[in-house]
Amino acid sequence: MGWMRDETGLDKTAANFVPLTPLSHLRRAAQVFPDTDAVVYKGFRTTYAQYYERCTRLASGLAALGVAPGDVVATLLPNVPAHAEAHFGVPACGAVLNTINTRLEANTIAYIFDHGEAKALLVDTQLLPVVEEAFQLMEGAKPTIIEVADTQAGHTPSGAHTEYEDMLAAADPAFEWIMPQDEWESLALNYTSGTTGRPKGVVYHHRGAYLMTMGTAISWPMPRGTRYLTIVPLFHCNNWNHVWTLPMVGGTAICCRDITAKNIYDAIADEGVSHFGAAPIVLNAIVNAKEEERREFDHVVQVFTAGAPPPAATLRAIEPMGFHVTQVYGLTETYGHVTECLWHDHWDAEPEEERYAIKARTGVLMPMMDDITSMDADNMTQIPMDSTTQGEIMIRGNCVMKGYLKNPDATAEAFEGGYFHSGDIALQHPDGYLKIADRAKDIIISGGENISSIEIEGVLMKHPDVLLCAVVAMPHEKWGEVPCAFVELKEGANPSEADIIAFTREHLAGFKTPKKVVVQELPKTSTGKIQKFELRKGFKIIE
């Protein structure tokens, strides 16, 4: 060990140290897989050689507009080829990619434009009206609009702005990519959902995204030739970093603009989709698809599901249909998924009920992370791994954000004690596997007892007539609060409130059973998460 004290001449050089960045995956793919399909969207197909050139032209076009390294370029786009290209073309000119939720209202979009200071905006023709409305509400300089038309979906150019394809055609295909000099440089800016106040700007660095791509390809796994369907929005944690991952394995991104069961089945049957990520609500749509929407296919589709714990009933229904589902977990602040329910062969012998209960666990840390566990947030100590005690999931590793843009206090609070505080409550099994009990804000405290809304939802999803459900706390004069269930029913079903409550009582302690059941369509985000805060607003009406 003595020689290690003298490392004279053992320095970082251009030959032995290159900043990590997912941009390197596409540069390599253009050389190694030049003729392989890179992006597919209906009649649109590009090889990796063409994909690289189009991303290069995008970088050139943005630079010609005055976008400088460190500037922000925003997108308001569905899952179309231009959005995949933006993930490489925007950072290739040194800029920071800010993908914006396409379902946001004008007021929040205006706030994001002002807060992120976007210099340019790639926007789908269909979304021009909300952008124009947002511009009227802005306080700062407005970004330059580049319109992305989608004639295949019936959205022809408006003629009011520079169109994306025209900009690419006029750009320089020999533009030299501006690679990061430091892997800590900012790569992307993603805004949280903002359900309580203004959304926070989460900043990603090149190193974290690169390591996320490596960990994902290992864990899923994603072999050479992976054919991946873009169900996860490219604005949501940058598609969980999957579009950055695909060039590494010579995979193909199959774009899906409208997420329906029919479109998913068609893509699997016609394009040979082998992988996709999706929220449990999408799995539910696949399970409950009408007969005319289904297609036959002869291979197993690998699925990562996240966004909410998948009900065991959904997993039990979908797996025999040809889908191998792995639950993963993460947040905007962690580039997407950072835990996985890694399967062990000895679980294959477990009874079906136990097997699917294990599959519904949150799991263990993925290989690119340092530590993910459940702690007592008050003193930052490990909770007992006894399958009962609950604590807050704490996360540490390279796939944690740099911090919140222009919000040092919130950043410091999130990183207090050397871990990222997730806000999610979980128990831990003796083998270390986490199981989310609830979001801290969603725990129901009734008469001093903590009740998990997720536990009740898992039971409700077993009811033969329930399509979707959400359980929230309802004010109660005696108990403080009690569970209230909101359910969407399957087509043609009409169970009574008493029937649903009686069903839950067969599986749960009396104090955990919903005291009220409301049948309605559930409000959802664009990624399929049920918006419980919207449901809570209605209590003055339903009490």
Question: Can you give keywords for this protein?
Answer:
543 residues; alpha/beta; Rossmann fold; GMP Synthetase, Chain A, domain 3; 3 domains; nine-stranded mixed β-sheet; eight-stranded mixed β-sheet; 18 helices; 27 strands; 29% helix; 26% strand; globular
General description of the model:
The protein has 543 residues and is of the alpha/beta class. It has 3 domains: 23-205, ANL, N-terminal domain (Rossmann fold, 3-Layer(aba) Sandwich); 259-440, Rossmann fold, CATH 3.40.50; 443-542, ANL, C-terminal domain (GMP Synthetase, Chain A, domain 3, 2-Layer Sandwich), CATH 3.30.300. It contains 18 helices and 27 strands. The strands form 5 sheets. Strands 2-1-11-10-12-13-14-15-16 form a 9-stranded mixed β-sheet. An 8-stranded mixed β-sheet has the order 7-6-5-3-4-8-9-20, with helices on both faces. A 5-stranded antiparallel β-sheet has the order 18-17-19-21-22. Strand 13 (301-305), helix 12 and strand 14 form a beta-alpha-beta unit.
Q: Mind sketching the topology for me?
A:
Elements: H1 23-32, E1 37-41, E2 44-47, H2 48-64, E3 72-76, H3 81-92, E4 96-99, H4 106-116, E5 118-124, H5 128-137, E6 144-148, E7 162-163, H6 164-170, E8 186-191, E9 201-205, H7 206-219, E10 227-230, H8 237-240, H9 242-245, E11 252-255, H10 261-271, E12 275-278, H11 280-287, E13 301-305, H12 312-318, E14 323-331, E15 336-340, H13 352-359, E16 364-365, E17 369-376, E18 381-382, E19 390-397, E20 403-404, H14 408-414, E21 420-428, E22 434-439, E23 444-446, E24 449-451, H15 453-460, E25 466-476, E26 480-489, H16 497-505, E27 516-519, H17 532-536, H18 539-542
Parallel strand pairs: 1-11, 3-4, 3-5, 4-8, 5-6, 6-7, 10-11, 10-12, 12-13, 13-14, 26-27
Antiparallel strand pairs: 1-2, 8-9, 9-20, 14-15, 15-16, 17-18, 17-19, 19-21, 21-22, 23-24, 25-26
Helix pairs in contact: 1-2, 2-3, 2-6, 4-5, 11-12, 12-13
Enzyme class: ligase
Protein name: 3-methylmercaptopropionyl-CoA ligase
Keywords: Fatty acid metabolism, Ligase, Lipid metabolism, Magnesium, Metal-binding
